Amino acid sequence: MKNNFKRFFSSGLGQLTIPIISICLLIIFNLIRDPSFFSISIAHNNDGNMVLAGNLISIINGASELAILAMGMTLVTAACGGQDISVGAAAAIAGSVFVKIIKMCMFDFNSDIKAGYIILAFLAACVVAMLFGAFNGTLVAVFKIQPMIATLILFTCGRSIAYWINGGATPTVSSPIITAIGGFIPGVPIPTPVIIVVVMAVLFKLLFHFTSLELFTQSVGINGNAARLNGINSTFIKLLSFIILGICVAVAGTIGVSRLGLINHETLLIDIEMDTILAVAIGGNSLGGGKFKIGGSILGAYVIQMLTITLYAMKVSSTDVKAYKAVVIILLVVIGSPVVKKYFGRMVSKAKANRSEKKAKGAVE
Amino acid sequence: MKKFGALLLVGVLALSFALTGCGAGGKSGKIKVGVVNNPPSESGYREANVKDMEAVFSAENGYELKTAYSLKNDEQLQAAQGFITEGVDYLLISAAETTGWDEVLKKAKEAGIKVYLFDRMIDVDESLYEAAVVSDMAKEGDTAVNWLLDQKLDEYNVIHIQGAMGSDAQIGRTGALDAQFAAGTMNKVVQQTATWDEAEAKKIVESVINSGEDFNVIYAENDGMAKGAVAALDEAGITHGVGGKVIVMGFDCNKWALRELLAQKWNYDGQCSPFQAQIISDLIQGKTTASSKKIINEEKGFDATTLTQADIDTYGLGE
Predict the structure, then answer these.
(1) ipTM value of the model?
(2) Which residue of A has its CA nearest to B194?
(3) Helix, strand or coil for residue B57?
(4) Most confidently predicted of A70-79, A168-177, B48-57, B288-297
(5) How far is CA A350 from CA A3, A15, A344, B115, B304, in A?
């Protein structure tokens, strides 16, 4: 019991301490502020489906793209010890490709949107996003460029590429299937993006269960040379992490487009790259690479979204939201820093020691 | 080394003159117009703007049109310089930046070339150009708010979604509504900027719905944000459009947005007109005379109950 408690604060579950504590704090804060914040109701949407509604649903629904990107980003962070800052731009490209292919199919076959077109478009978006991931990965793994610098290239030009794909226009696509991807499947009251997050999380779990990718990634991240000497192809592992992130990017981009049935290359998932990195950091993962927990990053994504929705519910002006977010995040990151954690760990063990000393004294007396 | 550099410079200059010289065939009888504009890929607005220019200043209408497109001010300046050397009769400019144009416009004046500005103003003395044909964003806001007042609702509870703070469009379109809030004729349920981001607009409306507050008007400062807001309404099962609970208003008149109007899912869309070419053409041909240096382009507001397919074909932007 004692050891568990100590471990909780220093290591072990400690990685999840910060996201769990911050979610609890946000829940308590909202309970005091306005308990109705948590009310969930069942409503009928305009298509006549039963759907769940409420702030909590908004949070888990709205954080979907962020959570998916955070999963991939965790892997890249762990393997390369750096982050991909081009995910937002790459998602804009993937989203543009998705819309472009659907439009082309509609034009070529002169028909309405069919499920087949959407599957084809999604696969094309995946391939394109994986290619861009491979591009980033090659720069990082083969040419040993700092990840942030390597991905800065796509960060800078990505949205321009997205804008060429659709000729600078903001085309719309409307179809019940696309509404179902970005909103609700008829008969299912849970938002589809949330279901997609669960599916992605399960896929990652299966990937780690049936392959040694998790172990390999960690060892490459901790010491690439040592891993290589032990027969792990560290270049390949790094490249692979970027390609897997590419799939996440395509999924996130597709969800983003489907939510509104519109691609705007300038605003699709704008500024998401920093939130993604933040989600990884709040999740207790070392941004220097090595050990990682994908679950932590997913929780981190929900923390960020909960913070945003809370601020909106408090009617904080959206221009100010970023500043308030920054203040909370500084607190979270400082509390999660090794120095503070160590301090708390020491406090706890001291308190324990004191108590047992007293007990011992009592026994003597 | 210096000499070599100078030689190279002269060579490049000569080459560029030779190249631009090639384009200037001595066709007579037609009015030569040089247009310096932003590239059509900039936006749906620009795409329509460029197409309109090409249609109005066509050979059939008695014009010889030369165009140069760039998002960069210095490239635009060079292009304008090029047109002056070529000897166009008229120079039409939509500048990337408001500054740096003095010298070029003075040269144009010396060469007897008449300058018209369109879409965007430039910081120069008024004597350097004939007229500027521009949009008045504040008037767009007024038109929209007047339309809203004409709806004679018992109560106006407005969700106001703003564009990027400080942009011309935001300032103009916000002003009229702010005046109503101040006068107390309309209630401000929430006023937030979504910086033209559709997804952000959806979040803003979602948070109002979750708070349980009542509202019956959504005033979004562009079409994309209106679409985001409507997505939130749809998910919450709130009716909108003609005969619905919530009035939806957007701006820019994209074709897809006007189609939403035609389907009566939205109520109003305010125009931001990219069609300045005809006004300038009339001025050039002396059909009209400019009463002042600044000519405000008449802009419409479309009501879902009166909109026709023909309007969409004529005024809609994009596809």
Answers:
(1) 0.86
(2) A318
(3) coil
(4) A70-79
(5) 13, 22, 10, 82, 72
In the block, which residue shows the tokens 């659709």? A166
Establish how many alpha carbons lie within 13 A of residue B181's alpha carbon, considering only the half-sphere containing its beta carbon. Answer: 15
- Contact residues on chain B for A313, CB-CB shorter than 8 A: 207, 210-211
Query: What is the spatial distance between Cα B228 and Cα B240, in angstroms, rounded to a whole number?
Result: 13
Scanning the structure block, which residue is given the tokens 């760039």?
A: B70
The CA-atom distances, in angstroms, between A64 and each of A206, A251, A270, B236 are 20, 10, 14, 19
The Cα–Cα gap between B269 and B218 comes to: 12
**Across-strand partners of B131?**
B116
3-class SS of residue B269: strand
- Taking the C-alpha atoms of residue A261 and residue A248, their distance in angstroms, rounded to an integer, is 19
Give the three-state DSSP class for B96. coil
Residues of A in contact with B210 (CB under 8 A): 53-55, 58, 313
Tell whether A183 is within 8 A of chain B (Cβ). Answer: yes
Higher pLDDT, B46 or A258: A258
Closest CA to B216 of B227, B225, B205, B201: B205
Q: Which residues contact A176 (CB under 8 A, 6 or more apart)?
A: A47
Residue A364: per-residue pLDDT: 64
> Does residue B99 register a pLDDT over 70?
yes
CB B35 within 8 A of CB B66: yes
Question: Which residues in chain B (230-269) have CB-CB distances under 8 A to chain A?
Answer: 231, 233-239, 254, 256
Percent of chain B at pLDDT exceeding 90: 73
Q: HSE-up of A341 (CA within 13 Å, CB side)?
A: 22
pLDDT greater than 90 at residue A168: no
The three-state secondary structure class of B194 is coil
B26 φ, ψ (degrees, to nearest 5): -85, 50
Cβ-defined contact of A313 to B194 (cutoff 8 Å): no
Strand order in the sheet with B63-69: B63-69, B31-37, B90-93, B114-118, B131-134, B294-296
B240: phi then psi, degrees, rounded to nearest 5: -145, 165
Which tops the pLDDT comparison, B225 or B290? Answer: B225
* Interval A80-109 mean pLDDT: 94
CA A113 → CA A107, A117, A179, A338, distances in Å? 10, 7, 12, 53
Of B41, B197, B198, the CB nearest to A167: B41
At B100, list the tokens.
Answer: 């740096």
Chain B contact present for A45, CB below 8 A: yes
Residue B25 has pLDDT above 70, yes or no: no
In whole angstroms, how far apart are CA B92 and each of A235, B29, B66, B97, B295?
A: 56, 19, 10, 15, 14
pTM of the complete model:
0.84
